[in-house]
Design a protein that fits this description.
By secondary structure, the protein is an alpha/beta fold. It is 45% helix and 13% strand. The strands form three sheets. Strands 6, 7, 8, 9 and 10 form a five-stranded parallel sheet that branches. A three-stranded parallel sheet has the order 3-4-5, with no helix packed on it.
């Protein structure tokens, strides 16, 4: 389930899936045997266009007309919320949809039998925005690495379930760090004019501006206008902020930041060891090998 958020992703996902399929065939993993029968694997690309209504149409066509049984991926939470109900009657499996919003978790927990085939691929904002920002901010201040002029903070989020969930979570995280966040602002995914908001933040003399958006054009414009306004505040960016920072002038020091954690098998059993290997591979080696080894 792909998004035409390809303005920044390009055709890498399709090439990646094709390469993985080719490697699997070479290793004899395809055809797949299920209940004693062999099944080939054919790739079908479902283009949601990052729009819930269009996603439902494309998803229904793939499930009904093309007979898709197994779906991988997805991006926006609003798309996920829509296609969950589309897919439920087909009893297909859908893994690694990247929508973060806690509304997805709530929907699954409310009727786990209906959404038994849905495997959410990303933690909700309370896990990320709610726990990841307060500790480093407190550390920076304690170690005298950053001296904020005051404890005022501004938060800007995209107009989606994910955005509002992130806004709620980050507001609480900033409060935990001792800051006084303004009520968070909400902006459209395709918004490009942020001068009024930045002028407001400047007048409030905030020390932190936190922003999240899955729209690359919107994020890039925000970062550029933040610079041009010469706002004396720390910019916290989540999502596409690194790309937007690199696209600007100068030589910003921007690097990969990963959420790494230890993975241990539950026992020495072969199945547990293999499960640990795969779990370590998905959030760790998948990213580290690309960043450190270029593979």
């Amino acid at each position: 389930l792909e998004e035409i958020a390809r303005t920044w992703r390009g055709d890498e996902p399709e090439r990646g899936f094709a390469m993985a399929l080719e490697d699997a065939r070479k290793q004899g993993l395809i055809p797949v045997k299920l209940d004693g029968q062999s099944h080939d694997v054919e790739l079908v690309y479902i283009d949601s266009q990052s729009d819930p209504e269009k996603a439902v149409v494309a998803d229904t066509d793939a499930l009904n007309r093309q007979g898709v049984k197994f779906i991988v991926g997805g991006w926006h939470s609003s798309v996920a919320m829509a296609v969950m109900d589309t897919e439920a009657p087909y009893h297909n499996v859908h893994i690694r949809p990247e929508g973060e919003a806690q509304t997805i978790d709530e929907k699954i927990n409310k009727d786990p039998k209906k959404y038994a085939g849905w495997f959410k691929g990303w933690p909700a904002p309370p896990i990320f925005a709610g726990t990841l920002y307060a500790p480093p901010l407190k550390y920076f201040i304690k170690e005298d690495l950053w001296r904020p002029a005051n404890k005022k903070a501004a938060v800007l989020v995209e107009d989606t379930d994910y955005g509002r969930g992130w806004g709620d979570a980050l507001t609480e995280s900033l409060k935990e760090a001792g800051f006084e966040p303004l009520p968070y602002d909400v902006t459209a995914l395709d918004e490009t004019e942020f001068s009024p908001l930045l002028t407001k933040y400047k007048a409030e003399k905030v020390s932190i501006v936190a922003m999240t958006s899955t729209g690359s054009v919107s994020t890039s414009n925000f970062v550029k206008q933040f610079r041009s306004q010469d706002l004396k505040a720390l910019l916290l960016g989540h999502g596409l902020a690194a790309q937007a920072l690199r696209s600007g002038s100068g030589d910003p020091q921007v690097a990969l930041s990963l959420n790494l954690y230890g993975v241990q098998p539950a026992s020495g059993a072969e199945a547990d060891v293999d499960a640990a290997r795969r779990l370590d591979g998905l959030p760790h080696r998948f990213f580290l090998d690309a960043g450190l080894h270029g593979r």
